[in-house]
Fold this sequence. Notes:
This protein is an alpha+beta fold. Helices cover about 40% and strands about 30% of the residues.
Amino acid sequence: xxxxxxxxxxxxxxxxxxxxxxxxxxxxxxxxxxxxxxxxxxxxxxxxxxxxxxxxxxxxxxxxxxxxxxxxxxxxxxxxxxxxxxxxxxxxxxxxxxxxxxxxxxxxxxxxxxxxxxxxxxxxxxxxxxxxxxxxxxxxxxxxxxxxxxxxxxxxxxxxxxxxxxxxxx
Length: 170
């Protein structure tokens, strides 16, 4: 009976990540021999925290769809969405060289700013943090915990739409 359990677990992983990862990353994650429920672990996190213009609110879905398309094409992982704010990480859950994560982040930032312009503001950088199934073993929520997150929110909200800033580790 165990082969069916493993198949069911892989189907759950595909369903959980399908809307938030590039299709090739979902396939690699589902076929990996590692644990299917990522544990919380320390990591260097290459991230973008972005906000799309939310006035008027009816334009938010289109702006978010465009932003998601841009970061997914660069193997970004959409981790958290809260209203018009989004957290994206690179190099997780499928690891890649830090240089590649930084290149993917830089390309995403450039495209986000050029294509969404005055309809977006964002901060980006690399920091130490935690990543994995955070919260509870009874509710699957995979994502990052960025060290100094309040600093990133403060920096983001200080920007005007159409601006971006790289946040250096302290």
